[in-house]
């Protein structure tokens, strides 16, 4: 711990020297260095095909088609399994002898901390800024469909998890792709897909699970501290260094330490955020019907970006996928560590995540933005747009949002550091030296993310996260019969 802390602190002395040598600000140096890589990743991941005169990313279609398939294949498990998920969280099927590192509630809050937060607060604002209010409708649809995908991937996560001698657990797509395909005689393909997923997961942990989070937290912090002309406004990398140190102090304790933090932060901050959102809606209750009407009409009218329905759909599904992470496979890594002997139970619990973070939180955020009309100026995006919308009713909300954003960002980075670490150890082995190297790289990217522009960070984030869906959903198709078997087995036990 001392070594990585000293390495991070050394940036305080190293980066100013770069500034003096080049004449550019530290933030500009970092942003300019990352821009080419970001542009390349975006071109590769968001390769597109034309439909109705609009460019539709293949990866977005891949996620949507998969979610629709799993919803029908499991006979709308996203709806009929909702009550069962609540019962499982209440401990109805828990057994003392169940193996795992954390409780099912801790696994849920840890996974939620990776999705609920800035993906909802800033991501919704980005979707509306680009796709109009109608993008919200398609985000909600993505949330409902994503519940089925989450069920499949998290059931497989527990089914194929690896329990180490020290009691720690490794699971997720890299394991069920490897083991599941090997069981079918497709070992080489499974290994290739597992390695590809791991590489993308590491990139996703550094992008969406890291840089985007700290970037938006830094923006909100700077806004509250007086704007870009202030010291922190010109040196956001210092904010990144502070956050990097805080993150490392927690992740050094492993997943149990992370889960203990997220199970406290996530419910508390969600409650504060939701209360604030309801306050704004109540203050503008007369405008709620018009807001819903605007969202629905915009989703099916030519007012959406580019002059058509597909513009809103693409932005809504894209932001929805990034928000709830259904199809990416990330949540399966956290849920694999839950204490359970029935894989399907974790599938039920995980299916609640898209409902909470996309259907509930995203909808409330969108209503606040649309009702207050702040999206119509076209001058704001991301966290700034959301903050301004709340400020129209709660003048001191930007301060509260700053605290919430920092805590949400912190909890998300904690969870994604674990996701990335598990992908890293799958590739390079489970040993202290390897884990230390990853943690240092992760903390370094916190500093980088705090200094980059929103456009660059958002593009890199979406590219790395959505790339994880390519191998993961292919694996879900192939292994879905195993999920159905586990689901039937669970229902047989539940009826006894």
In short:
78% of the residues lie in helices and 2% in strands.
Q: Could you walk me through the main structural features you see in this protein, from its secondary elements to its overall organization?
A:
There is one protein chain. With 496 residues, the chain is an all-alpha fold. The chain has one domain: Amino acid/polyamine transporter I. It is 78% helix and 2% strand. The chain is built from 23 helices and 4 strands. It has helices at residues 2-22, 26-45, 58-73, 77-80, 82-89, 104-115, 118-131, 134-159, 173-183, 187-225, 231-234, 236-251, 254-283, 288-299, 309-324, 330-335, 343-350, 352-372, 382-391, 397-428, 432-451, 454-467, 469-494; strands at 48-51, 54-57, 162-163, 169-170. The strands form 2 sheets. It has a two-stranded antiparallel sheet. It has a two-stranded antiparallel sheet with strand order 3-4. Helix 8 runs antiparallel to helix 18 (352-372), helix 9 (173-183) crosses helix 23 and helix 10 (187-225) runs antiparallel to helix 22 (454-467). The radius of gyration is 22 Å and the shape is globular. The protein starts with a helix and ends with a helix.
Distance between the termini: 50 Å
State the strand order across the main sheet: 1-2
Multimeric state: single chain
Number of strands: 4
Radius of gyration: 22 Å
Share in helix: over 70%
Query: What is the H/E order?
Result: HHEEHHHHHHEEHHHHHHHHHHHHHHH
Structural classification: mainly alpha
* CATH architecture annotation: Up-down Bundle
Total count of domains:
1
The CATH C-level name is Mainly Alpha
The largest sheet, given as strand count, sense and whether it forms a barrel, is: 2 strands, antiparallel
- Number of DSSP helices? 23
Which percent band covers the strand fraction?
Answer: under 5%
- Note the overall shape: globular
CATH topology: Amino acid/polyamine transporter I
Mean pLDDT: 77
